[in-house]
C-alpha cells in the first residue's frame, strides 16, 4: 500500500534524535534549594515562599533575577553531543574533581539532582548528571552560569520597596529642601513644596528610576570611614501599616555612597544612580 512521506520522516531518525537531551530534568516550581560549588566559593540558596535567600557563605536575600536566570538556563539547556555512554574513568573529562557542581533539591521528597561540569573542549564543555552515567557536552552559556560568584547572587538593590505597600515618600536634600510625595489609589500626588501641592507626579520620572539604584560594592564591615549619618540626600518611606524605612546618600569626592539605615547595609553606587535623587520637581509632574 501507499502512505504519506511524513511516516518516513517520523521514524527515519538517528539515535541522537531519540535520546532525551535535557542536561538536568526537574520542575522549576518544585525547586527548594540550590547548592553551587565552583572555584570561587560554595554557594547555598534556599527558597522561602516565592523568594530566594542566600544561606552560605553569607546570609541575606539573594538577587532574584540571578537565581531565576540560573534555573532557567539549566532547565532549558540541552546536550550537544553524547561523548561516552559508559565512561570507565572521569578524570580525562575534568570531572574528578568537577570544575563546577550544581545540586538542586526538588519536591517534597527533598531529592537532590546533580549536574557536574568538566573541562572545555573547543567551544563546548564536558558534563554529566546524577540521572545518567553518560558524559556529554554542553554549550558555553551553561558554564558561565555555573561559574557565577557570590557577588553575582547578592541582592544589590538599595531602595527595595514595593510602592503598593507605601503611602508617602519624603526626600530631604541638604538642610533646606524637602519634597514630599504621597501615594494613594495608584496615584502619586505632591504634598511639598507648597508651590506644587496637589499636583500629580509621574512614577516613571522619579520612583522607578530610584528603585533601580543598585550597589556597585557593599561594605559589610562598614570600614569605609565615611559617615552617612548626615547625608546629602535622605529618603524616608512611610508604609500604609505604619513604620518607616530610611535611606541615606552621600557624595564623597568622586565616590557616591548609599546606606539602608534599618539593615545597616552600605556601599557605593554609580554617579548616574546618585543623580536620580536630584530630580527637579517640575520634571516629575504630570503635564
Account of the protein in words:
This protein is of the alpha+beta class and 287 residues long. The protein is built from seven helices and 18 strands. It has a nine-stranded antiparallel β-sheet. The mean pLDDT is 93.
Form type: elongated
Major β-sheet strand ordering: 4-3-2-1-6-7-8-9-5
Structural class: alpha+beta
Largest β sheet strand count, sense and barrel closure? 9 strands, antiparallel
Mean pLDDT metric: 93
What is the number of strand segments?
18
Number of separate helices: 7
Low-confidence stretches: none
Helix fraction, binned, reads 10-25%
> Which band does the percent of strand residues land in?
35-45%
Kindly, what is the distance between the CA atoms of the first and last residues, rounded to a whole number of angstroms? 75 Å
Instruction: Note the run of SSEs as H and E.
Output: HHEEEEHEEEEEHHEEEEHEEEEEH
Rg is 26 Å
Question: What would the keywords be for this entry?
Answer:
9-stranded antiparallel sheet, 287 residues, 7 helices, alpha+beta
Strand and helix layout:
Elements lengths: L4 H7 L3 H4 L12 E7 L4 E7 L2 E6 L3 E2 L2 H13 L4 E4 L15 E7 L4 E11 L2 E6 L5 E4 L2 H6 L3 H4 L12 E8 L3 E8 L2 E6 L7 E2 L1 H9 L5 E2 L14 E7 L4 E9 L2 E6 L4 E5 L1 H5 L12
Antiparallel strand pairs: 1-2, 1-6, 2-3, 3-4, 5-9, 6-7, 7-8, 8-9, 10-11, 10-15, 11-12, 12-13, 14-18, 15-16, 16-17, 17-18
Amino acid at each position: 500500500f501507499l502512505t504519506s512521506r511524513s511516516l518516513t520522516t517520523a521514524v527515519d531518525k538517528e539515535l541522537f534524535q531519540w535520546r532525551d537531551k535535557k542536561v538536568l530534568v526537574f520542575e522549576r516550581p518544585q525547586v527548594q534549594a540550590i547548592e553551587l560549588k565552583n572555584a570561587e566559593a560554595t554557594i547555598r540558596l534556599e527558597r522561602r515562599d516565592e523568594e530566594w535567600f542566600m544561606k552560605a557563605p553569607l546570609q541575606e536575600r539573594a538577587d532574584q533575577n540571578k537565581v531565576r536566570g540560573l534555573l532557567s538556563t539549566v532547565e532549558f539547556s540541552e546536550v550537544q553531543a553524547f561523548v561516552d555512554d559508559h565512561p570507565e574513568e572521569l578524570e580525562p573529562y575534568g570531572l574528578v574533581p568537577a570544575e563546577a557542581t550544581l545540586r538542586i533539591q526538588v519536591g517534597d521528597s527533598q531529592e537532590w539532582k546533580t549536574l557536574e561540569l568538566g573541562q572545555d573542549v573547543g567551544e563546548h564543555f564536558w558534563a554529566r548528571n546524577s540521572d545518567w552515567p553518560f558524559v556529554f557536552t554542553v554549550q558555553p552559556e551553561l558554564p558561565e552560569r555555573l561559574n557565577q560568584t557570590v557577588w553575582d547572587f547578592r541582592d544589590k538593590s538599595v531602595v527595595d520597596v514595593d510602592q503598593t505597600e507605601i503611602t508617602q515618600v519624603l526626600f530631604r536634600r541638604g538642610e533646606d529642601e524637602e519634597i514630599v510625595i504621597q501615594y494613594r489609589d495608584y496615584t502619586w500626588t505632591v504634598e511639598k513644596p507648597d508651590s506644587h501641592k496637589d499636583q500629580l507626579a509621574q512614577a516613571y520620572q522619579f520612583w522607578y528610576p530610584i528603585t533601580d539604584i543598585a550597589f556597585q560594592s557593599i561594605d559589610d564591615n562598614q570600614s569605609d570611614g565615611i559617615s552617612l549619618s548626615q547625608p546629602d540626600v535622605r529618603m524616608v518611606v512611610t508604609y500604609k501599616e505604619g513604620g518607616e524605612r530610611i535611606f541615606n546618600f552621600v557624595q564623597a569626592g568622586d565616590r557616591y555612597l548609599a546606606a539602608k539605615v534599618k539593615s545597616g547595609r552600605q556601599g557605593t553606587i554609580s554617579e548616574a544612580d546618585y543623580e536620580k535623587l536630584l530630580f527637579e520637581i517640575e520634571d516629575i509632574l504630570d503635564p
